[in-house]
Design brief:
Blueprint (H helix, E strand, L loop, with lengths): L29 E7 L6 H9 L7 E7 L5 H11 L3 E6 L5 H11 L4 E5 L3 E3 L4 H6 L7 E10 L6 H9 L5 E2 L17 E5 H6 L12 H11 L3 E12 L7 H22 L14 H26 L4 H22 L8 H23 L11 E3 L2
Parallel strand pairs: 1-2, 1-4, 2-3, 6-7, 6-9
Antiparallel strand pairs: 3-10, 4-8, 5-9, 6-8
Length: about 375
Protein backbone atom coordinates (compact mmCIF):
# COMPACT_ATOMS: atom_id res chain seq x y z
CA UNK A 1 0.00 0.00 0.00
CA UNK A 2 1.30 3.47 -0.89
CA UNK A 3 2.04 5.98 1.83
CA UNK A 4 0.36 9.38 1.69
CA UNK A 5 1.81 10.76 4.89
CA UNK A 6 5.14 10.28 6.63
CA UNK A 7 5.05 9.40 10.33
CA UNK A 8 4.81 12.37 12.70
CA UNK A 9 8.10 13.57 14.16
CA UNK A 10 7.10 12.44 17.65
CA UNK A 11 6.09 8.98 16.43
CA UNK A 12 2.48 9.39 17.54
CA UNK A 13 -0.20 7.09 16.16
CA UNK A 14 -2.54 8.38 13.49
CA UNK A 15 -4.97 5.50 13.78
CA UNK A 16 -5.68 5.90 17.48
CA UNK A 17 -5.45 9.46 18.80
CA UNK A 18 -6.44 8.30 22.27
CA UNK A 19 -3.72 5.64 22.49
CA UNK A 20 0.02 5.58 23.12
CA UNK A 21 1.43 8.78 21.63
CA UNK A 22 4.83 7.12 21.25
CA UNK A 23 3.66 4.29 19.03
CA UNK A 24 5.06 4.89 15.54
CA UNK A 25 3.24 4.25 12.30
CA UNK A 26 5.01 3.19 9.16
CA UNK A 27 2.58 4.85 6.77
CA UNK A 28 -0.90 6.21 6.36
CA UNK A 29 -3.14 4.73 3.69
CA UNK A 30 -6.08 6.48 2.12
CA UNK A 31 -9.19 5.24 0.35
CA UNK A 32 -11.48 7.42 -1.74
CA UNK A 33 -15.19 6.61 -1.45
CA UNK A 34 -17.43 7.76 -4.32
CA UNK A 35 -21.16 7.09 -3.77
CA UNK A 36 -23.06 7.15 -7.06
CA UNK A 37 -26.74 7.38 -7.89
CA UNK A 38 -27.64 8.32 -11.47
CA UNK A 39 -24.32 10.08 -11.88
CA UNK A 40 -23.66 9.26 -15.52
CA UNK A 41 -23.05 12.90 -16.48
CA UNK A 42 -20.46 13.77 -13.84
CA UNK A 43 -18.88 10.74 -12.17
CA UNK A 44 -16.15 10.29 -14.78
CA UNK A 45 -14.74 13.73 -13.90
CA UNK A 46 -14.84 12.96 -10.18
CA UNK A 47 -12.94 9.69 -10.61
CA UNK A 48 -10.41 11.24 -13.01
CA UNK A 49 -9.54 13.94 -10.45
CA UNK A 50 -8.74 11.22 -7.91
CA UNK A 51 -6.87 8.93 -10.31
CA UNK A 52 -4.48 11.79 -11.15
CA UNK A 53 -3.38 12.28 -7.53
CA UNK A 54 0.31 11.82 -6.69
CA UNK A 55 0.86 9.57 -4.89
CA UNK A 56 -2.30 7.64 -5.69
CA UNK A 57 -4.75 6.47 -3.02
CA UNK A 58 -4.68 2.81 -2.06
CA UNK A 59 -8.10 2.42 -3.71
CA UNK A 60 -10.99 4.28 -5.28
CA UNK A 61 -14.07 2.57 -3.90
CA UNK A 62 -17.14 3.33 -6.00
CA UNK A 63 -20.58 2.22 -4.84
CA UNK A 64 -23.38 2.36 -7.41
CA UNK A 65 -26.50 2.65 -5.27
CA UNK A 66 -29.06 1.19 -7.65
CA UNK A 67 -28.69 3.74 -10.47
CA UNK A 68 -31.36 3.69 -13.15
CA UNK A 69 -29.47 5.66 -15.81
CA UNK A 70 -26.33 4.53 -17.63
CA UNK A 71 -24.09 4.78 -14.57
CA UNK A 72 -23.78 1.00 -14.16
CA UNK A 73 -22.16 0.33 -17.52
CA UNK A 74 -20.04 3.48 -17.31
CA UNK A 75 -18.69 2.52 -13.88
CA UNK A 76 -17.91 -0.98 -15.10
CA UNK A 77 -15.89 0.55 -17.92
CA UNK A 78 -14.07 2.86 -15.46
CA UNK A 79 -13.27 -0.05 -13.14
CA UNK A 80 -11.73 -2.01 -16.02
CA UNK A 81 -9.57 0.92 -17.14
CA UNK A 82 -8.30 2.12 -13.74
CA UNK A 83 -6.62 -0.63 -11.64
CA UNK A 84 -7.15 1.16 -8.30
CA UNK A 85 -10.94 1.28 -8.75
CA UNK A 86 -13.03 -1.20 -6.78
CA UNK A 87 -16.70 -1.24 -7.74
CA UNK A 88 -19.66 -2.34 -5.62
CA UNK A 89 -23.19 -2.28 -7.00
CA UNK A 90 -26.41 -2.34 -4.99
CA UNK A 91 -29.44 -4.08 -6.45
CA UNK A 92 -31.69 -1.16 -5.41
CA UNK A 93 -31.31 2.31 -3.99
CA UNK A 94 -30.57 2.17 -0.25
CA UNK A 95 -29.95 5.86 0.43
CA UNK A 96 -26.81 7.97 0.75
CA UNK A 97 -26.20 7.40 4.47
CA UNK A 98 -26.47 3.64 4.10
CA UNK A 99 -24.17 3.70 1.07
CA UNK A 100 -21.57 5.76 2.93
CA UNK A 101 -21.58 3.36 5.89
CA UNK A 102 -21.26 0.45 3.48
CA UNK A 103 -18.21 2.15 1.99
CA UNK A 104 -16.65 2.93 5.36
CA UNK A 105 -16.88 -0.72 6.36
CA UNK A 106 -15.47 -1.94 3.04
CA UNK A 107 -12.65 0.61 2.71
CA UNK A 108 -9.04 -0.48 3.27
CA UNK A 109 -7.52 2.91 4.06
CA UNK A 110 -6.86 4.43 7.43
CA UNK A 111 -8.23 7.69 6.07
CA UNK A 112 -11.28 7.89 3.81
CA UNK A 113 -12.14 10.75 1.49
CA UNK A 114 -15.86 10.97 0.75
CA UNK A 115 -16.17 12.51 -2.71
CA UNK A 116 -19.57 12.98 -4.31
CA UNK A 117 -20.20 12.10 -7.94
CA UNK A 118 -20.58 15.76 -8.95
CA UNK A 119 -17.30 16.99 -7.43
CA UNK A 120 -13.69 17.02 -8.60
CA UNK A 121 -10.46 17.69 -6.71
CA UNK A 122 -8.35 20.67 -7.80
CA UNK A 123 -4.62 19.95 -7.84
CA UNK A 124 -2.84 16.60 -8.05
CA UNK A 125 -1.49 16.94 -4.47
CA UNK A 126 -4.91 17.36 -2.80
CA UNK A 127 -4.74 14.05 -0.93
CA UNK A 128 -1.22 14.67 0.37
CA UNK A 129 -2.12 18.11 1.66
CA UNK A 130 -5.36 16.86 3.17
CA UNK A 131 -3.71 13.90 4.90
CA UNK A 132 -1.07 16.18 6.45
CA UNK A 133 -3.67 17.53 8.89
CA UNK A 134 -3.98 14.12 10.49
CA UNK A 135 -0.54 14.41 12.06
CA UNK A 136 -2.55 16.10 14.80
CA UNK A 137 -4.04 13.14 16.71
CA UNK A 138 -7.11 15.15 17.72
CA UNK A 139 -8.24 15.70 14.10
CA UNK A 140 -11.03 13.44 12.88
CA UNK A 141 -12.05 15.35 9.74
CA UNK A 142 -10.49 17.77 7.26
CA UNK A 143 -12.64 19.73 4.81
CA UNK A 144 -11.81 22.04 1.93
CA UNK A 145 -13.56 24.88 0.09
CA UNK A 146 -15.93 24.29 -2.85
CA UNK A 147 -15.64 26.34 -6.01
CA UNK A 148 -18.75 26.70 -8.17
CA UNK A 149 -18.25 27.04 -11.91
CA UNK A 150 -21.00 29.61 -12.39
CA UNK A 151 -20.40 29.80 -16.14
CA UNK A 152 -21.53 26.16 -16.45
CA UNK A 153 -24.82 26.74 -14.63
CA UNK A 154 -28.02 27.47 -16.51
CA UNK A 155 -29.97 30.63 -15.51
CA UNK A 156 -32.59 28.75 -13.47
CA UNK A 157 -29.88 26.91 -11.57
CA UNK A 158 -28.24 30.23 -10.70
CA UNK A 159 -31.55 31.56 -9.42
CA UNK A 160 -32.10 28.58 -7.16
CA UNK A 161 -28.56 28.75 -5.85
CA UNK A 162 -29.21 32.33 -4.73
CA UNK A 163 -32.66 31.46 -3.37
CA UNK A 164 -31.29 28.64 -1.24
CA UNK A 165 -28.77 31.08 0.20
CA UNK A 166 -25.79 28.76 -0.14
CA UNK A 167 -22.43 30.11 0.93
CA UNK A 168 -19.97 28.20 -1.26
CA UNK A 169 -17.55 30.17 -3.42
CA UNK A 170 -18.46 31.03 -7.01
CA UNK A 171 -15.84 30.99 -9.75
CA UNK A 172 -12.97 33.31 -8.93
CA UNK A 173 -14.27 33.99 -5.42
CA UNK A 174 -12.19 34.06 -2.30
CA UNK A 175 -12.26 31.07 0.08
CA UNK A 176 -15.01 31.16 2.68
CA UNK A 177 -14.33 32.32 6.20
CA UNK A 178 -13.63 30.25 9.30
CA UNK A 179 -15.37 26.89 8.89
CA UNK A 180 -13.67 24.85 11.61
CA UNK A 181 -17.00 23.39 12.72
CA UNK A 182 -18.70 23.15 9.31
CA UNK A 183 -18.87 20.57 6.58
CA UNK A 184 -18.77 21.17 2.87
CA UNK A 185 -22.18 19.47 2.74
CA UNK A 186 -20.18 16.23 3.00
CA UNK A 187 -19.28 16.47 -0.69
CA UNK A 188 -15.52 16.38 -0.23
CA UNK A 189 -14.53 15.54 3.36
CA UNK A 190 -11.58 13.51 4.61
CA UNK A 191 -12.20 11.30 7.65
CA UNK A 192 -10.25 9.13 10.05
CA UNK A 193 -12.15 5.95 9.26
CA UNK A 194 -12.04 3.96 12.52
CA UNK A 195 -13.04 6.94 14.65
CA UNK A 196 -15.93 7.76 12.37
CA UNK A 197 -17.17 4.19 12.65
CA UNK A 198 -16.84 4.37 16.44
CA UNK A 199 -19.14 7.40 16.40
CA UNK A 200 -21.71 5.38 14.48
CA UNK A 201 -20.95 6.64 10.99
CA UNK A 202 -23.81 8.28 9.11
CA UNK A 203 -27.39 8.29 10.39
CA UNK A 204 -29.37 5.92 8.14
CA UNK A 205 -32.69 7.34 9.30
CA UNK A 206 -32.06 10.24 6.93
CA UNK A 207 -32.60 8.52 3.60
CA UNK A 208 -32.87 11.62 1.41
CA UNK A 209 -30.00 13.65 2.87
CA UNK A 210 -29.09 15.68 5.92
CA UNK A 211 -26.77 12.98 7.24
CA UNK A 212 -23.89 15.46 6.97
CA UNK A 213 -25.63 17.94 9.28
CA UNK A 214 -26.33 15.24 11.85
CA UNK A 215 -22.73 14.02 11.69
CA UNK A 216 -21.40 17.57 12.05
CA UNK A 217 -23.58 18.00 15.12
CA UNK A 218 -22.29 14.73 16.59
CA UNK A 219 -18.69 15.77 16.02
CA UNK A 220 -19.29 19.10 17.72
CA UNK A 221 -20.33 17.12 20.79
CA UNK A 222 -17.20 14.96 20.65
CA UNK A 223 -13.62 15.67 21.69
CA UNK A 224 -12.29 15.54 18.13
CA UNK A 225 -11.48 18.44 15.80
CA UNK A 226 -12.82 19.29 12.35
CA UNK A 227 -10.22 21.27 10.39
CA UNK A 228 -11.00 23.54 7.45
CA UNK A 229 -8.20 24.14 4.97
CA UNK A 230 -9.26 26.76 2.38
CA UNK A 231 -6.39 25.69 0.09
CA UNK A 232 -8.06 22.31 -0.44
CA UNK A 233 -10.23 23.43 -3.34
CA UNK A 234 -12.68 21.29 -5.28
CA UNK A 235 -15.27 22.02 -7.91
CA UNK A 236 -18.95 21.23 -7.77
CA UNK A 237 -19.87 20.16 -11.30
CA UNK A 238 -23.16 21.94 -11.71
CA UNK A 239 -25.00 22.43 -14.98
CA UNK A 240 -27.35 19.45 -15.29
CA UNK A 241 -29.86 20.20 -12.55
CA UNK A 242 -32.99 19.96 -14.71
CA UNK A 243 -36.02 22.23 -15.06
CA UNK A 244 -38.32 23.99 -12.63
CA UNK A 245 -40.14 20.82 -11.60
CA UNK A 246 -36.85 19.10 -10.74
CA UNK A 247 -35.74 22.03 -8.61
CA UNK A 248 -39.07 22.19 -6.76
CA UNK A 249 -38.93 18.46 -6.02
CA UNK A 250 -35.45 19.00 -4.64
CA UNK A 251 -36.72 21.78 -2.36
CA UNK A 252 -39.47 19.50 -1.08
CA UNK A 253 -36.79 16.92 -0.34
CA UNK A 254 -34.78 19.56 1.53
CA UNK A 255 -37.85 20.25 3.65
CA UNK A 256 -38.19 16.58 4.59
CA UNK A 257 -34.47 16.46 5.34
CA UNK A 258 -34.67 19.42 7.70
CA UNK A 259 -37.57 17.90 9.62
CA UNK A 260 -35.56 14.71 10.12
CA UNK A 261 -32.35 16.59 11.03
CA UNK A 262 -34.13 18.67 13.67
CA UNK A 263 -35.69 15.54 15.13
CA UNK A 264 -32.42 13.58 15.15
CA UNK A 265 -30.42 16.39 16.78
CA UNK A 266 -33.15 17.83 19.01
CA UNK A 267 -32.73 21.13 17.17
CA UNK A 268 -28.99 21.15 17.91
CA UNK A 269 -28.07 21.25 14.20
CA UNK A 270 -29.44 24.77 13.89
CA UNK A 271 -26.18 26.24 15.15
CA UNK A 272 -22.73 26.13 13.58
CA UNK A 273 -21.20 25.38 16.99
CA UNK A 274 -22.26 25.53 20.67
CA UNK A 275 -23.02 29.16 21.51
CA UNK A 276 -22.71 30.35 17.90
CA UNK A 277 -25.28 32.01 15.66
CA UNK A 278 -28.03 30.11 13.90
CA UNK A 279 -27.18 28.73 10.46
CA UNK A 280 -28.18 31.48 7.95
CA UNK A 281 -29.55 28.91 5.51
CA UNK A 282 -32.03 27.78 8.16
CA UNK A 283 -33.02 31.41 8.84
CA UNK A 284 -33.66 31.78 5.12
CA UNK A 285 -35.92 28.73 5.11
CA UNK A 286 -37.81 29.91 8.21
CA UNK A 287 -38.49 33.21 6.45
CA UNK A 288 -39.93 31.30 3.53
CA UNK A 289 -42.27 29.28 5.74
CA UNK A 290 -43.37 32.20 7.92
CA UNK A 291 -44.81 34.27 5.07
CA UNK A 292 -46.92 31.27 4.05
CA UNK A 293 -48.23 30.82 7.59
CA UNK A 294 -49.02 34.53 7.99
CA UNK A 295 -50.81 34.61 4.64
CA UNK A 296 -52.89 31.56 5.58
CA UNK A 297 -53.70 33.12 8.96
CA UNK A 298 -54.87 36.29 7.21
CA UNK A 299 -57.03 34.28 4.83
CA UNK A 300 -58.60 32.45 7.74
CA UNK A 301 -59.23 35.73 9.53
CA UNK A 302 -60.91 37.18 6.46
CA UNK A 303 -63.16 34.14 6.00
CA UNK A 304 -64.28 34.38 9.62
CA UNK A 305 -64.65 38.15 9.98
CA UNK A 306 -65.11 39.31 6.36
CA UNK A 307 -63.07 42.34 7.40
CA UNK A 308 -61.29 44.01 4.44
CA UNK A 309 -58.26 44.76 6.63
CA UNK A 310 -57.67 41.04 6.96
CA UNK A 311 -56.78 40.98 3.27
CA UNK A 312 -53.72 43.06 4.12
CA UNK A 313 -52.48 40.18 6.26
CA UNK A 314 -52.95 37.95 3.23
CA UNK A 315 -51.10 40.21 0.81
CA UNK A 316 -48.30 41.84 2.81
CA UNK A 317 -46.21 38.71 3.75
CA UNK A 318 -45.82 37.38 0.15
CA UNK A 319 -45.05 40.93 -1.06
CA UNK A 320 -42.38 41.35 1.62
CA UNK A 321 -40.86 37.99 0.69
CA UNK A 322 -40.87 38.91 -3.00
CA UNK A 323 -39.00 42.14 -2.22
CA UNK A 324 -36.52 40.27 -0.01
CA UNK A 325 -35.72 37.68 -2.67
CA UNK A 326 -35.50 40.25 -5.46
CA UNK A 327 -33.03 42.35 -3.45
CA UNK A 328 -30.99 39.23 -2.77
CA UNK A 329 -30.85 38.61 -6.51
CA UNK A 330 -29.73 42.18 -7.13
CA UNK A 331 -26.91 41.80 -4.62
CA UNK A 332 -25.82 38.51 -6.20
CA UNK A 333 -26.33 39.71 -9.77
CA UNK A 334 -22.67 40.03 -10.68
CA UNK A 335 -21.44 37.02 -8.74
CA UNK A 336 -24.00 34.63 -10.24
CA UNK A 337 -24.30 36.38 -13.60
CA UNK A 338 -28.04 37.02 -13.29
CA UNK A 339 -29.67 38.81 -16.22
CA UNK A 340 -32.70 41.06 -16.23
CA UNK A 341 -35.05 38.15 -16.82
CA UNK A 342 -33.72 36.26 -13.79
CA UNK A 343 -34.05 39.37 -11.60
CA UNK A 344 -37.65 39.83 -12.75
CA UNK A 345 -38.65 36.25 -12.02
CA UNK A 346 -36.53 35.33 -8.96
CA UNK A 347 -39.19 36.52 -6.50
CA UNK A 348 -41.94 34.39 -8.06
CA UNK A 349 -39.68 31.39 -8.38
CA UNK A 350 -38.79 31.89 -4.73
CA UNK A 351 -42.47 31.71 -3.76
CA UNK A 352 -42.77 28.34 -5.45
CA UNK A 353 -39.58 27.14 -3.77
CA UNK A 354 -40.90 28.22 -0.36
CA UNK A 355 -44.19 26.40 -0.91
CA UNK A 356 -42.39 23.22 -2.01
CA UNK A 357 -40.07 23.34 0.98
CA UNK A 358 -42.96 23.90 3.41
CA UNK A 359 -44.92 20.97 1.94
CA UNK A 360 -41.87 18.75 2.21
CA UNK A 361 -41.32 19.79 5.81
CA UNK A 362 -44.94 19.14 6.80
CA UNK A 363 -45.89 16.09 4.72
CA UNK A 364 -44.09 12.74 5.32
CA UNK A 365 -42.98 10.71 2.32
CA UNK A 366 -45.52 7.99 1.60
CA UNK A 367 -43.33 5.23 0.24
CA UNK A 368 -40.19 4.47 2.26
CA UNK A 369 -37.17 3.27 0.34
CA UNK A 370 -36.80 -0.52 0.09
CA UNK A 371 -33.45 -1.89 1.21
CA UNK A 372 -31.62 -4.87 -0.25
CA UNK A 373 -28.21 -6.38 0.29
CA UNK A 374 -25.39 -5.23 -2.03
CA UNK A 375 -23.58 -7.33 -4.59
CA UNK A 376 -19.98 -6.94 -5.66
CA UNK A 377 -19.19 -6.20 -9.29
CA UNK A 378 -16.72 -8.37 -11.11
Amino acid sequence: MSSLLSPPADGSSLANPGGDQRRAVASTTLSVLVPVYNGERSVRGAVASVASQLPAPVEILIIDDGSTDGSGSLLTEIARSIPSVRLLQNESNTGLASTLNQGLRAAKGELVLVLHQDCALLGDDWLVRGASHFRDPSVITAVGSPLHLVERMDPLEREFWVLRNHTADPSGGEPAGDRLTLFSENKCDLFRRELLLELGGFDTRLEEGGEDQVLAWKLRQSRYRVVHDPSLRFTILLGAAGGLRTHLKKDASYGRQMRQVLSATRFGALRHAPGSSVDPRFVNRVSGVLWILFALAGLGLFLVTRAPLALLVVGVPPLARWVQLTLRGVRARQTYQLGGRELATIGGVGWLADLSYALGFLVPKRHPRRRESPRAAA
